């Protein structure tokens, strides 16, 4: 889900009634004993059955159809380091551009993760120490 989610992020998932799922939500679902956290790009309703079309932000193709009963919850928060950050329902144009580059190159993915790690280390090293009593 780069660049929306990064390795080391902690996510908060909450149950949501199926009728409240919307395009743009990031959902957690299970398939073949694996969990996926991908964005809803379309909802398909056929009679009484609803299926989701999901896709990772940096993945060029959509996932196989997701039956709505496989959805465990919706992402409602992301913690990076010590802070909870708000994620917009729709990624910014810059995020979409970054995702389109990342989905085309595993080298760029590795490079982006390294840069993110370096900046995180530099930020934590620059933080002043707080004396304890």
Provide a brief overview of the structure.
23% of the residues lie in helices and 35% in strands. The chain is an alpha+beta fold.
How would you characterize the overall build of this protein?
- The protein is of the alpha+beta class.
- The chain has one domain: Umud Fragment, subunit A, CATH 2.10.109.
- 23% of the residues lie in helices and 35% in strands.
- Strands 1, 2, 3, 4, 5, 6 and 7 form a seven-stranded antiparallel beta sheet that branches.
- A hairpin with a 2-residue loop joins strand 6 (71-80) and strand 7 (83-85).
- The chain is globular, with a radius of gyration of 17 Å.
Q: Can you identify the CATH class?
A: Mainly Beta
Question: What is the residue-mean pLDDT, rounded to a whole number?
Answer: 83
**Biggest sheet overview:** 7 strands, antiparallel
| Overall spatial form | globular
Gap between N and C termini, in Å?
42 Å
Instruction: Provide the gyration radius in Å.
Output: 17 Å
Question: Given the helix and strand composition, which structural class is it?
Answer: alpha+beta
- Number of continuous helical runs: 2
**CATH topology term:** Umud Fragment, subunit A
Q: Provide the domain count.
A: 1
The tally of beta strands, per DSSP, is: 7
Architecture, according to CATH? Ribbon
Spans where pLDDT lies below 50 across 5 or more residues: none
Query: In sequence order, what are the helices and strands, one letter per element?
Result: EEEEEEEHH
Helix content: 10-25%
**Residues in β-strands, percent:** 25-35%
